[in-house]
Specification:
This protein is mainly alpha-helical. The protein has one domain (2-89). Helices cover 95% and strands 0% of the residues. The protein is built from two helices and no strands. It is elongated, with a radius of gyration of 27 Å. The protein starts with a helix and ends with a helix.
Length: 91
């Protein structure tokens, strides 16, 4: 009977230790996701400023409509290259 009791205590302590490890892992994953989301927000803001600067530089030498067209075309070209790269990588 003592062996069975020892086996149950061992199983419960092992499950408890694994549960703590899973909780720590989940907490680290949540923190990593939050940091990734913050990085993505900063990336989008930075890209916006970069595009704004490109538009301003082009608008100084051309008309504002032409500057917007050129900036938009560059952004669409980059998006197309990224989408095609993702498509090739997922084959």
């Amino acid at each position: 009977m003592g062996f069975l009791l020892d086996l149950i205590v061992f199983a419960v302590s092992t499950v408890e230790a694994k549960a703590k490890a899973v909780r720590r892992g989940i907490a680290r994953l949540v923190i990593a996701c939050a940091l990734l989301a913050a990085a993505l927000i900063f990336l989008i803001v930075g890209l916006g400023f970069l595009l704004w600067g490109l538009y301003g530089a082009l608008a100084a030498g051309t008309s504002p409509i032409a500057a917007a067209f050129i900036t938009g075309a560059i952004v669409l070209l980059v998006a197309a290259v990224l989408a095609l790269t993702a498509k090739v990588l997922t084959r």
